[in-house]
Amino acid sequence: MSGGQPLLEVDGLKKHFPIRSGVLGGVSAHVYAVDGVSFDIRRGETLSLVGESGCGKSTVGKSILRLIEPTAGEVRLDGQRIDNLPAGQLRPLRRRVQVVFQDPFSSLNPRMRVRDILAEPLRNFGLATGHGETEDRVASLMDKVRLPRDAIGRFPHEFSGGQRQRIGIARALAPGADLIICDEAVSALDVSVKAQIVNLLSDLQDELGLALLFISHDLAIVEHLTHRVAVMYLGKIVELAERSTLFARSHHPYTRALLSAVPVPDPEAQRQRIILTGDVPSPINPPSGCRFHTRCPFVFDRCRVEEPLLRPVGKAGHISACHLEHAPGGEVVPQPNA
């Protein structure tokens, strides 16, 4: 992981989906799917974006990729703003920022052989001249994702789910991407296959210096892959920290609840399970104050009226959006009003 300027910078990203109603289709409300998200990713780093389904994490990834247009905020790649580029200038971005989707079958064209799936980005970006060079590049990509070269003549349905995801990773590598957004890339796979794909991504990162935005709800997988973790709840990041810090000394009650649900390998190990009551509020009408206050076991009056801002807690780089302080004994106490 390199220092210097971040490869990707996201500042105040918002995506509000309009809800239309009536004969004329007027906007009656908005879904606040992403509502002011900021983070950065350095070269060779993995940042994991985690949270419950519907918290907005996949929308963040699609907004960065411009698969959907952000409502507000800025996205910079190597210091250059890319969120406002016209469609005609997005081509270099498409080469440098690639994506691996959740479903490895629906993301591959069932009518194309693997050879053509992997050759398509090479031809699109002019990275291979002639049939021989294209075949060599495709064979090299198969080697990188540990698939046999003689499988390039097969169709996607002839592979297992894990093998199809390897093809998806190879396609993302083909144009020489600097950043790969993995949108729930292992959630549809069996447990043993998940581990294989995570190990593959880790090895490719070491070999190629890739940056990864790993979007997931599976904290057990995240712990083995990531450098830093950003926790999302109802469209906002509520905590961000180095992996070791987050898993050992998480601050936000929501993060603590998520971590308490992660299975531990030792059946004798004791872990206090934190059960959250109630349902996740609607992103159409999020709660006032702290968005988590309707489910938080430590809620007090300030939480209901004042939205907490991300602030440093503990070690450098650890930030949390919570009005609580944690005492040495582990108990939580209200933070005095500023």
Detailed description of the structure:
- 28% of the residues lie in helices and 24% in strands.
- With 338 residues, the protein is an alpha/beta fold.
- It has an eight-stranded mixed sheet, sandwiched between helices. The protein has a four-stranded antiparallel sheet with strand order 2-1-4-5. Strands 13-14 form a two-stranded antiparallel sheet.
- Helix 3 packs across helix 4.
- It starts with 7 loop residues before the first strand and ends with a strand.
- The mean pLDDT is 88.
Write a concise keyword list for the protein shown above:
338 residues, alpha/beta, four-stranded antiparallel β-sheet, globular
Residue runs with pLDDT of under 50 for 5 or more positions: none
The strand line-up of the biggest sheet is 6-7-8-3-9-10-12-11
Major sheet summary line: 8 strands, mixed
Number of helices: 10
Shape: globular
- Mean pLDDT value: 88
Percentage of helical residues? 25-40%
Class computed from helices, strands and strand pairing: alpha/beta
H-E order:
EEEHEEHEHHHEHEHEEHHHEEEE
Radius of gyration: 21 Å
Q: Calculate the terminal CA-CA distance, rounded to whole Å.
A: 36 Å
Q: What fraction of the residues are assigned to beta strands by DSSP? A: 15-25%
Number of strands: 14
Please write out the topology:
Blueprint: E1 8-21, E2 26-41, E3 46-50, H1 57-65, E4 72-77, E5 80-81, H2 91-96, E6 97-100, H3 114-124, H4 131-144, H5 161-173, E7 179-183, H6 191-208, E8 211-216, H7 219-222, E9 228-233, E10 236-242, H8 243-249, H9 253-260, H10 301-305, E11 311-312, E12 319-320, E13 324-326, E14 332-334
Parallel strand pairs: 3-8, 3-9, 6-7, 7-8
Antiparallel strand pairs: 1-2, 1-4, 4-5, 9-10, 10-12, 11-12, 13-14
Helix pairs in contact: 3-4, 5-6
